[in-house]
Amino acid sequence: MDAVSNKHVFAFEEGDGKNKHLLGGKGANLCEMTQIGLNVPPGFVISTAACLDYLASADKALPDGLMTEVREQMKALEQKTGKGFGNPDNPLLVSVRSGSAMSMPGMMDTILNLGLNSETLQGQISATGDARFGYDAYRRFIQLFGKVALGVSDEAFDKEFEIVKKAAHVEQDVDLSATELKDISERFLRVVQEGTGRPFPEDPYVQLEIAVKAVFGSWGGKRAVDYRKQFRITPDMANGTAVNVCTMVFGNRGDDSGTGVAFTRNPGTGENKLYGEYLINAQGEDVVAGIRTPKPIDRLAAEMPEMAAQLAVLRDNLESHYHEVQDFEFTIEQGQLYCLQTRNGKMNAVAMVRTSVEMEREGLISKERALLRIEPDLLEQMLFPRLDPSVKAESVAQGLPASPGAAAGIAVFDADRAEQFGGELGQKVILVREETKPEDIHGFFSSRGILTSRGGKTSHAAVVARGMGKPCVAGAEGISVDVNRRVAVVGDTSFKEGDVITLDGTTGKVYLGEIPTVEPDFTPELGILLSWADEEAGLKVMANADLPDDALRARKYGAVGIGLARTERMFNDVERLPIVIEMIVAETLDQRQEALDRLLPLQRSDFQHLFEVMSPYPVTIRLLDPPIHEFLPDENVLERELEELHALAQTSRGMNALAGAMGLLHTSKEKRKDLDSMRRLVDPALVEEAITKKEAMLKKVRALYETNPMLGHRGVRLGITFPEIYRMQIRAILEAAAECGRMGIEVHPKIKVPQVCTVQELKKVKDYVDEIHEEVKQQYGHPVNFQFGTMIEVVRACMRAESLAEEAEFFSFGTNDLTQATFSFSREDAENKFLPLYNRSEILQDNPFEVLDEKGVGKLMKLAVEWGKAVRPNMQVGICGEHGGHPASIAFCHNAGLDYVSCSGPRVPVARLAAAHAALAGKG
Ligand code: ADP
Ligand code: MG
Ligand code: MG
Prior knowledge:
The protein has 35 helices and 31 strands. It has 924 residues and is of the alpha/beta class. It is elongated. Residues 41, 95, 97, 106, 110, 112, 246-249, 284-285, 288, 329, 331, 340-341 line the site of adenosine-5'-diphosphate.
């Protein structure tokens, strides 16, 4: 290794602010901020490379020479600050902080006030003349160091803390006196001694070395590993953590000191206004830990006007340098403002979209950046449910609106049970805690919302919930949570585990019971952003919609057509199903035609409505696809019903016999009437008729039975064996279009044939189409403007794309079936039985039904596009189905030369942005 790459430690003045991989996000930004002249306390970064070396070493040893480098840097810090590390007269104290390339909030712990020991403590006290402050710093250090570096549990410390607080009759930490804090420090030293079997380390360099190792070790700890797994953070995104050693500044030096966390813009709404919280006379982690409820940043102007002005300048400097919303930490020590951290702000979708549009208008970022800074998937959040405003309900408690959206579910009081109820049992769960900690993270994943009784908008619960896009109400102080008894008391009522509650993270209100939610609306900014996306995109985005309401919604989301309307959905309507069944069980062609004649006007009006709603955009209608037995009742059910009917027939015969016998005995008019109604109660003839019908049905069901229905008699195969069904549908489409034409509505119907594997099938269907079109032309006096095309969803269709293109005017990839066909996996069986294991053991990277398999299925698609377009260059090629709404698959479609994607309505905004990303990536 050469001398340069052997360097593991970088002063904030020398580290490369762009190299997050080496210095971690926090470290790189501390360097960058120092270098652009912001007020950062002096410090240095130990690289992630050192961390990897350490973790790879057999005996968990720091790399050679590392501590020498560290000592040199400490000497430099001593010079910059005029203090001495371990010097009792004027001690230098530092924080030791972790930080990897990806921000992993709360995943790894920071140690504050390192360098304190029994001697430097006295020095610190005489230097500041503030014994209370000295002991406060000391007890924090012992606890944090004990917990993070030495592995002593929090509970042992908390117990001692509570004992002293109780004895002193004190509620808030700030009310503890110097003597009480001294008592606490001594108790804490004993806790460490008992917990580790050794005295608390006095030598500051020993403290520092242990701390560095602990930070490195935490990269491999369970919490960090779980987090990386959950968010799929791979080594090329972040590999190892850096250690940041930073001179301590003290927000707990009295009432002219304080600490806070702020966003340069509101991360919940995007509003262009400083947003944050602070606490007077407190040290950093007090704000985040939710121990005291902090004050909104607005109040700082009244309390410390000079600091508020400086903070406003800091905010501008950060934004104009980073060109991005920043989430930063600051501390004020006796009227001096320091910036301790900055990173790009994590925001919800509404805020991301609004800040994109506004920062572009302010000239802070380009349109391209405005689009690219938003992950397409995030937009789905903008379709967050909110409480139905028409429902009047009384809230029982009010907390802080910490993460927007509304959710209802059963209350659960700890993360493990949340995981159990929400994850394993699939129930809707609301996690209720006093406050949350990083070790609760698994409970968040399984919950629909989070409620805490303590902490602010930047508390752990709030930050994590916002990141996950889950509703959160924080600091609902009216609720007293008893985790052990699993109840929460609110005023004079209460709720216990399993009771349903509703949260509104947008207003901070909490309700007992379930309140219905409604879909939210598009914000105006989203409309603007997506219009920019459409300008960049190559792919058009259509929607899958079967019913006019879905189509309307899809249009609202910006779909420029329907790429897939499934006609079987219409068949399943309660009023139609009996007719559909009649059509299926018909014994003769005449009988079948009679049922179809009744279906025709229904389908025609379905299509007409779709056309009207979508005009002037195209509507692609797929002819009947599923095996027809899907419309019939289940064989087992029929058998059971028949059994019951036979029993009933016997009963009714019995009753008739009884009535007859009684009739001979009783002659009174009254009695005879009774007997007649007894006979009528169950009419044997009626029962016989029902039996005959059910038997016919059962026979049909058995006749239609298939071993492999999805590979059986379905799709175009049906259309060829029962041409009258497809003919009815084709007629309904063409007549609906002609009706619209008559009313002056512009329509572009596209008829799509499913499951095609050879052009002969297409030709056959095309013959019906031409013939029916002739008739419709006669009938309406004008031709219908339509296209005829095919699904590409079987492997042979891909291979025969050239030949299919001779008949088909468009191709539409059905990638769900095509994936099944390519892998020879049936989706349900795969996802239930072996896919999860395949994914875990990395036999397959992803679930190919969710993420398009580019290497296999994608290759077939590319061939089909190429061959198809060779024959018919202007042919429109699209994809319909789940993959069409998946950003990575959309990027693939863009590159494979498709013309459009079609996805479910709510995915349309996601797909529009993803299409723009794909085009911009190609440019870049
Ligand atoms: P996290 O990643 O959990 O935010 P940090 O390293 O940022 O961890 O530190 C935790 C808290 O300690 C933050 O509030 C931070 O501002 C504060 N802090 C860190 N270093 C210092 C320091 N040198 N002086 C004062 N406060 C500090
Ligand atoms: Mg921090
Ligand atoms: Mg299909």
